[in-house]
Design a protein that fits this description.
Layout (H helix, E strand, L loop, with lengths): L9 H9 L7 H11 L4 E4 L6 H16 L8 E4 L3 H14 L7 E4 L6 H9 L3 E4 L1 H9 L10 E4 L2 H6 L3 H10 L11 E6 L4 H10 L4 E4 L10 E7 L5 H11 L5 E4 L3 H13 L4 E4 L5 H12 L5 E4 L1 H4 L9 E4 L6 H8 L9 E7 L4 H11 L4 E3 L11 H4 L14 H6 L2 E3 L2
Parallel strand pairs: 1-6, 1-7, 2-4, 2-5, 3-4, 5-6, 8-13, 8-14, 9-11, 9-12, 10-11, 12-13
Antiparallel strand pairs: 14-15
Helix pairs in contact: 2-3, 3-4, 6-8, 14-15
C-alpha cells in the first residue's frame, strides 16, 4: 500500500516523495485512514515506527481542506520533552510545504518572547511541552476553545516524568466541541499500555480506534544485541576500548543519571573521542547544539539519559550502547529501538556489572530472545554472579564455523 491509497492528497504525496518517503510504515497504514475519517485513535507504537507522520499528515490534510484562515489554534500536540516537541514541529514544517499551514513550538528553558510574538500573529498548529503551555495559557497567550485536533504523544513518558497533573489541567480546558460546533478529535499515542495509561485514555477518547504495531517487548530483528560482563569500575575503560576497537564513529550511549552522563562524556573527550552529554540540567542551547552536532556527525558519541533521549531521531544510527543497564526492561527496548530502523542493521551493546544482573534477567524475560555474551575483551568480570548467568564461559574455542556476528563482537556465548 502506498500513501495515495491511504487517502492522502496528490500534493502531500508529492511532498513525501520529495522527502524520500516511499511506503507508509505499519502505524501510518493503520492510523491515517481512521484519522481522515475523524475517528479518535488509541495508538500503541514504540520509538522509530513513524507515528509522528501517522498523526501529522492527516491533520495537515484536514486543516488544509477546512480552509479556515483565522488566528485560532486548531490543533494542539502535547509532547513530554523539548527535543521531541522541536522534532514534531520540524515534521509539520516538512510535511505541510506549500499548504500554508502555520505552526509553532513552545517549550520552557528559553525566553518566551519569540514564542509569544508568533502566537500573537496566529498559528493553526501548536506543539508544546506541558509546563510552558500552562504558563502561556495562564498569561492569556494561548486559548484552547477552538481546538479541533488534540494529540497526546508519548503518553507513557508523560506519566513517567510526573506530568499527569499538568495533563489534567490541559484536558480540563479542551472543548468537546468548538464554538462552530466542530467535534474535537483526539489522537493518543503511547509506547506501552498500563492501567494508568488506560485510565488516562478513557478520560480523553470517544469510541477510539485502537491501532498497534510491534509490541514494546519486541526489539527490531535488525538489531544485533550483545552484552559485556564487566566490573563497574572498568566500564569507562571498556567503553573507550569498544569505540576504538570497533572503529565506532557514531554512537548513542545511555546512562541512568545526569551526573553519570557528564562523567562519561568528559572521560571520552579526554581520550580524544568527540563526545557531548545531553540531559535535563543542560541549558536548552547546549542541548540543541549537542544534538545538532551529533546529527551532523561533528560529535561521535552522544551520552544521554533516558528522559533527555526520548524523541531523539537520528538517521542511520548504527550503534546504541547501554553503559548502564536500565532498571526497567521496557526502557531497554526503547533505547535499542533507536538503531536498526527502516530495515537497516544496527548494533546494541550493553555493559553489565554484577549489581545489574537482575536487570539483565528481566530484559531476557521480556524480549524472549537470547543475547550474545562477549567474552573476549580486556576487562572481563572475573568473578561473575553465577546465580544469574550460570558458570563463567570457557575461553576454549568451540568447533564449528565462525560466523559474521562472532567476528564482529569477539568470542561469545548465548544467554540461556
Amino acid at each position: 500500500m502506498n500513501f495515495k491509497e491511504l487517502g492522502l492528497t496528490d500534493q502531500i504525496c508529492a511532498t513525501l516523495k520529495g522527502l524520500g518517503y516511499e511506503n507508509p510504515t505499519p502505524i501510518q497504514t493503520q492510523a491515517i485512514p481512521h484519522v481522515l475519517k475523524h475517528s479518535d485513535i488509541f495508538g500503541v507504537a514504540q520509538t522509530g515506527t513513524g507515528k509522528t507522520a501517522a498523526f501529522a499528515l492527516p491533520i495537515i490534510q484536514l486543516l488544509h481542506a477546512g480552509n479556515s484562515r483565522n488566528n485560532n489554534i486548531k490543533a494542539l500536540v502535547l509532547a513530554p520533552t523539548r527535543e521531541l516537541a522541536i522534532q514534531i514541529d520540524e515534521s509539520f514544517r516538512d510535511y505541510s510545504k506549500g499548504l500554508g499551514i502555520r505552526h509553532t513550538v513552545i517549550f520552557g528553558g528559553v525566553s518566551q518572547h519569540n514564542q509569544t510574538n508568533t502566537l500573537r500573529r496566529g498559528v493553526d498548529v501548536l506543539i508544546a511541552t506541558p509546563g510552558r503551555l500552562l504558563d502561556l495559557m495562564q498569561q492569556g497567550f494561548v486559548k484552547l476553545n477552538h481546538i479541533q485536533y488534540f494529540v497526546l504523544d508519548e503518553a507513557d513518558r508523560m506519566l513517567d516524568m510526573g506530568f499527569i497533573n499538568d495533563i489534567r489541567k490541559v484536558i480540563a480546558k479542551l472543548p468537546t466541541k468548538t464554538p462552530d460546533g466542530i467535534q474535537r478529535q483526539t489522537l493518543f499515542f503511547s509506547a506501552t499500555t498500563t492501567p494508568e495509561i488506560s485510565v488516562l485514555a478513557d478520560t480523553l477518547l470517544r469510541n477510539p480506534v485502537k491501532v498497534s504495531v510491534t509490541p514494546v517487548s519486541t526489539p527490531a530483528e535488525t538489531v544485533n544485541q550483545a552484552v559485556y560482563y564487566v566490573d563497574k569500575d572498568n566500564k569507562r575503560s571498556l567503553l573507550k576500548h569498544v569505540i576504538q576497537d570497533k572503529q565506532i564513529h557514531h554512537a548513542l550511549v545511555f546512562t541512568r543519571t545526569k551526573r553519570g552522563a557528564d562523567r562519561v562524556a568528559k572521560e571520552l573527550t579526554k581520550n580524544g573521542i568527540a563526545a557531548e552529554a545531553i540531559h535535563g540540567d543542560k541549558s536548552q542551547n547546549a542541548r540543541v547544539r549537542a544534538l545538532e552536532g551529533f546529527k551532523k556527525r561533528k560529535i561521535n558519541v552522544l551520552v544521554a539519559t533516558d528522559i533527555a533521549a526520548r524523541g531523539i531521531d537520528i538517521d542511520d544510527l548504527s550503534f546504541v550502547i547501554n553503559y548502564e543497564i536500565p532498571e526497567l526492561a521496557e526502557t531497554y527496548v526503547h533505547r535499542i529501538g533507536r538503531t536498526g530502523r527502516a530495515g537497516k542493521n544496527g548494533v546494541a551493546l550493553s555493559f553489565c556489572c554484577d549489581e545489574e544482573s537482575a536487570y539483565m534477567r528481566d530484559i531476557k524475560k521480556l524480549i524472549k530472545k537470547e543475547i550474545e555474551i562477549v567474552n573476549n575483551h580486556p576487562f572481563p568480570n572475573l568473578q561473575p554472579n553465577t546465580t544469574e548467568r550460570g558458570p563463567v564461559p570457557s575461553n576454549k574455542k568451540k568447533s564449528g564455523s565462525n560466523n559474521n556476528k562472532a567476528r564482529r563482537f569477539g568470542k561469545k556465548q548465548k544467554v540461556k
